[in-house]
Specification:
This is Cof-like hydrolase. With 278 residues, the chain is α/β, with parallel strands linked by helices. Helix content is 31%, strand content 25%. The protein has 9 helices and 14 strands. Helix 8 links the parallel strand 13 and strand 14.
Length: 278
């Protein structure tokens, strides 16, 4: 078979908040796919700071910030952070509507008090020990706003909503080209997690930059994801795979639905498409 370039989302695809990490079977699948000659990229909405734990994974590169920052073989081939004026225009309605949020930069991910608390719970895995949970968050470079430097480049924003009526109010105040996309739902607290990104940049535009770098065709791409922010990737790739735990809307854009993340979903998908060799 032709060698493929595989693009993997992180949250809900590689990372499970239930176990606070990546299933061993997924790591094994990546290792075997690499040995079989395929290329593997992590394609995430997270900024570099939120994904440092994945930098040691045996992959060929990363697409961060939903397409706003791209690395290939350790080389930074594309970088487009928010301007200061854009950042001010985006944060003002959040402050006015009192919506908790986080700013995602290359060196850190920074939140207001409520947003920080939400992300502690998300990354904390299955431990109920608050100190241990905060340690996990610090290991992922997540801090309160107090530690944010004015010189840091911000790539995107993450917001937290329990009242979806606020989403419509926020969307009405967002200026083009920025868009609001719900990326996850936490049922325990009925919490919707959404991203504010530059609508001109998506995971698909980031993937296109990788393909241009290698001079390869999109027919040789495979994308695997689980949420609405993965739809551009799923629509772009030659083969689109949704996790078994994916949202309904993500599954509607998939060619194949694999098993849940905690049921060895990545390994199963790689096996079904013969990506791990004989």
């Amino acid at each position: 078979m032709n060698k493929k370039i595989i693009f993997l989302d992180i949250d809900g695809t590689l990372f499970s908040p239930q176990i606070g990490g990546t299933p061993e079977s997924a790591l094994k699948a990546i290792e075997l796919a690499k040995k079989a000659g395929h290329k593997v990229f992590l394609c995430t909405g997270r900024s570099l700071a939120g994904a440092t734990k994945y930098l040691h994974y045996p992959v060929d590169g990363f697409i961060f910030g939903a397409g706003s920052s791209v690395y290939v073989n350790g080389q930074h081939i594309y970088d487009n952070p928010l301007t200061k004026s854009q950042l001010k225009a985006l944060t003002q309605p959040l402050e006015d509507l009192r919506i908790p949020y986080m700013l995602e930069a290359a060196a850190g991910v920074y939140g207001d008090e409520t947003g920080y608390g939400y992300i502690v719970d998300y990354y904390g895995g299955n431990t109920s020990d608050r100190a241990k949970r905060e340690k996990i968050v610090l290991e992922n470079n997540i801090y309160r706003f107090d530690y944010l430097s004015e010189e840091e480049n911000i790539y995107k924003m993450c917001i937290f909503l329990q009242d979806l009526r606020l989403m419509k109010d926020l969307e009405d105040r967002l200026e083009e080209p920025f868009v609001l996309t719900v990326s996850a739902f936490e049922p325990k607290r009925q919490l919707h997690i959404a991203e504010i990104t530059n609508g001109l940049e998506t995971k698909a535009t980031g993937i296109q930059k990788v393909m241009d770098y290698f001079g390869l065709a999109r027919e040789d791409t495979i994308g695997i994801g689980d949420s609405a922010n993965d739809i551009p990737m799923l629509d772009y790739c030659g083969v689109a795979i949704a996790m078994g735990n994916a949202s309904k809307v993500a599954k509607e854009h998939a060619d194949f639905i694999t098993k849940d993340i905690l049921e060895d979903g990545i390994y199963h998908a790689f096996e079904q498409f013969h990506l791990m060799g004989e």
